[in-house]
From TrEMBL:
<dbReference type="Pfam" id="PF01314">
    <property type="entry name" value="AFOR_C"/>
</dbReference>
<dbReference type="GO" id="GO:0046872">
    <property type="term" value="F:metal ion binding"/>
</dbReference>
<dbReference type="Pfam" id="PF02730">
    <property type="entry name" value="AFOR_N"/>
</dbReference>
<dbReference type="GO" id="GO:0009055">
    <property type="term" value="F:electron transfer activity"/>
</dbReference>
<dbReference type="GO" id="GO:0051539">
    <property type="term" value="F:4 iron, 4 sulfur cluster binding"/>
</dbReference>
<dbReference type="InterPro" id="IPR036021">
    <property type="entry name" value="Tungsten_al_ferr_oxy-like_C"/>
</dbReference>
<feature type="domain" description="Aldehyde ferredoxin oxidoreductase N-terminal">
    <location>
        <begin position="5"/>
        <end position="204"/>
    </location>
</feature>
<keyword id="KW-0408">Iron</keyword>
<keyword id="KW-0004">4Fe-4S</keyword>
<comment type="similarity">
    <text>Belongs to the AOR/FOR family.</text>
</comment>
<dbReference type="InterPro" id="IPR001203">
    <property type="entry name" value="OxRdtase_Ald_Fedxn_C"/>
</dbReference>
<dbReference type="InterPro" id="IPR013983">
    <property type="entry name" value="Ald_Fedxn_OxRdtase_N"/>
</dbReference>
<dbReference type="InterPro" id="IPR013984">
    <property type="entry name" value="Ald_Fedxn_OxRdtase_dom2"/>
</dbReference>
<dbReference type="InterPro" id="IPR051919">
    <property type="entry name" value="W-dependent_AOR"/>
</dbReference>
<dbReference type="InterPro" id="IPR036503">
    <property type="entry name" value="Ald_Fedxn_OxRdtase_N_sf"/>
</dbReference>
<keyword id="KW-0479">Metal-binding</keyword>
<protein>
    <submittedName>
        <fullName>Aldehyde ferredoxin oxidoreductase</fullName>
    </submittedName>
</protein>
Length: 627
């Protein structure tokens, strides 16, 4: 077995009450690593086309990668893969916390949950004894995610759902500690199986090829992270809310359901505001992460809880026209306890507000007003009244009530808090990402608009190449399984030190902006190990990895996801953006919306797909994608 892997897959059938340990498929691990890649390969192989995402036949796959269980920074994450009830296509999400660490300590790389329990159930998994216990969970059913984990105790590592998952809200997530696998409705799939919680423990040791070398190298990387302008300074000091002023200043923060990209009072939701007003609270982090980008805040009635992230203050703050930090923090706490994805929730609420504004539906929700929002969040989680419709997500709401032109989703998955009219590469990434409109499947906006280079986000240079490279890299990172922030550190301090507007900064921008094929060639090189990503993998597994190998693995995963979506009925016509993004200018002087039609053909050519977005046979052969 490849070092870094425990070598075991646990398959659980909730209906038959059986649990079987099987060997990890080493051939799959070599081609797809673990995490998202391994999970996608399993999903494709285990299911026929056309299954019901909320039916017992949809497997819920929890998958770790070779770096999980190590002390590598930002490595204690697990991937969740299933057919998405929100999009009908590939569903994947990732989560921090400690559950991934627990899986590897239990000697389990992948956990496959199949079937449906007759009643509420929870699983206790003892990896040392190879024992799986099916326990009644009726006493936990209805509890919030924090309350459920508290009731389960501290002796094991937990992954749970809240009332949102129990009631099959299509954007419900799965929570570990205070972190959430929020996207694609994975919590609804868990709820459809009547599975409230997973608890896991073990004391097994991770087997590495070069443990001493790995530890020494990791110590060096930790020092790099601590001194990095983003990972060690901005994120650590301000948390992810530290990006609010940047996106607001660049017309990229969603405001009033993406009608605008700037809010005059967004500063009140920023990390700088928290610090200046003594509200920053206590830093929090996932297990073994030195960045500590999380914040704990005081919420009336809840005490000290996990504070909102950038995505939340964007989608449930400015997107709703609300900049009251106390209100947004309270809604964030509610969503976490109820087990709801704050991105999809915020977009859906914003859509409901615009329906109200246009007189298309009486929702009781209005931009800039907090009244009724908390009550609607509860109604969504429990599927009461109009909340039952909002629990279906923005796409289904627009199909029922109209407003498709301003329904802010791609493939059914609501957009993240970066307006793509202010970041053309991010728009291409949104349109083509297989799970739908999400920023962490490439994070092109950082390398284009919000990072240190800030190349012109509104011309066509590099706007098709960048998403391909970033999507491939993200697929590999999500299969190792690491936090996407590890890729932010790949831009060295020297670039961050360039004075914005200075001649060296302008020169660097021009070079990067015009790099095109050279950029892809460098990122695809298999000659040298140049990043901590490939070096970590090599020292743990004993196999040779380079940036080019990661690009190849990522492209393989991305194309397999694409083939899964095509199998499930999605087509190139789904590679689009909301009409508002395509047609409406973001600010004065902007001629129109996003020029996707000019960029998509080039993107397809770079991918090795035909004009309809279907991977060519030679592309699949080259990448060894079996369908």
């Amino acid at each position: 077995m490849i070092k870094g892997f425990a070598g075991r897959v646990l398959e659980v059938d909730l209906e038959a009450r059986t649990a079987v340990f099987r060997p990890l498929d080493e051939a799959i691990a070599r081609l797809y690593l673990g995490g998202k890649g391994y999970g996608t390969r399993l999903l494709y192989d285990l299911t026929p086309p056309g299954i019901d995402p909320l039916g017992p036949e949809n497997p819920l796959i929890f998958a770790t990668g070779p770096l999980n269980g190590s002390l590598a920074p930002q490595s204690n994450r697990f991937a969740v893969v299933c057919k998405s009830p929100l999009t009908g296509g590939i569903g994947s999400s990732a989560c921090g916390g400690s559950f991934a660490f627990g899986m590897k300590k239990a000697g389990i790389d992948v956990l496959v949950v199949r079937g449906r329990s007759a009643g509420a159930v929870r699983l206790e998994i003892d990896g040392d004894a190879d024992e799986v216990r099916f326990l009644d969970a009726s006493d936990l059913w209805g509890l919030g995610t924090g309350a459920a984990q508290k009731a389960l105790g501290k002796g094991m590592h937990h992954a749970v759902i809240g009332p949102g998952g129990e009631n099959l809200v299509l954007y419900a997530g799965i929570v570990s500690d205070a972190r959430i696998a929020g996207r694609c409705g994975v919590g609804a799939v868990m709820g459809s199986k009547r599975l409230k919680a997973l608890s896991i423990q073990g004391t097994r040791k991770l087997d590495m090829e070069d443990e001493a070398g790995f530890k020494k190298y990791t110590q060096w990387v930790r020092q790099v992270f601590k001194g990095h302008p983003v990972l060690g300074e901005k994120l650590r000091r301000f948390g992810t809310m530290g990006i609010v002023n940047t996106t607001n200043g660049r017309n990229m923060i969603p405001t009033r359901n993406f009608q605008e990209g700037h809010h005059p009072d967004a500063m009140g939701l920023s990390g700088e505001y928290l610090e200046d007003h003594g509200l920053a609270g206590v830093r929090s982090s996932c297990l073994h992460c030195p960045v500590a980008c999380g914040r704990e805040v005081e919420v009336p009635g809840a005490g000290r809880v996990k504070g909102p992230e950038y995505e939340t203050v964007g989608m449930m703050g400015t997107n709703l026209g609300v900049t009251d930090l106390e209100k947004v923090s309270h809604w964030n706490w509610m969503a976490d306890e109820l087990g709801l994805d704050t991105i999809s929730l915020g977009v859906t609420l914003g859509f409901a507000m615009e329906l109200q504004e246009r007189g298309m539906l009486e929702t009781g929700l209005r931009f800039g007003r907090a009244e009724g929002v908390a009550e609607m969040i509860e109604a969504i989680a429990h599927r009461r009244g109009l909340g039952d419709d909002l629990a279906q997500g923005t796409r289904r709401m627009s199909e029922k009530y109209g407003g498709k032109a301003f329904a802010m989703h791609v493939k059914g998955l609501e957009l993240s808090a970066y307006d793509p009219r202010g970041s053309y590469a991010q728009g291409v990434e949104y349109a083509t990402t297989n799970r739908g409109g999400c920023h962490v499947q490439g994070a092109s906006m950082y390398f284009e608009s919000t990072g240190p280079l800030t190349i012109n986000p509104q011309n066509l240079k590099l706007k098709a190449e960048l998403p391909v490279v970033q999507q491939n890299l993200a697929c590999a990172v999500n299969s190792m399984v690491l936090c996407i922030f590890t890729t932010y550190g790949l831009i060295p301090r020297q670039v961050h030190a360039l004075k914005p507007g200075g001649w060296t900064h302008r020169l660097a921008r021009v070079i990067f902006e015009n790099s095109g094929p050279a950029y892809r060639l460098i990122m695809g090189s298999k000659l040298l190990q140049v990043t901590w990503l490939d070096t970590w993998l090599s020292r743990i597994t004993g196999l040779r990895f380079t940036p080019g190998h990661l690009q190849e693995i990522g492209a393989r995963i991305f194309n397999l996801e694409r083939m899964y979506n095509l199998r499930e009925g999605l087509t190139g016509a789904d590679d689009t953006l909301p009409e508002r993004i395509l047609r409406e200018p973001l600010f004065k002087g902007m001629d129109s919306g996003h020029p996707l039609d000019q960029l998509l053909p080039r993107y397809y050519r770079i991918r090795g797909w035909d004009s309809h977005g279907v991977p060519l046979p030679e592309t699949l052969r080259k990448l060894k994608v079996r369908t």
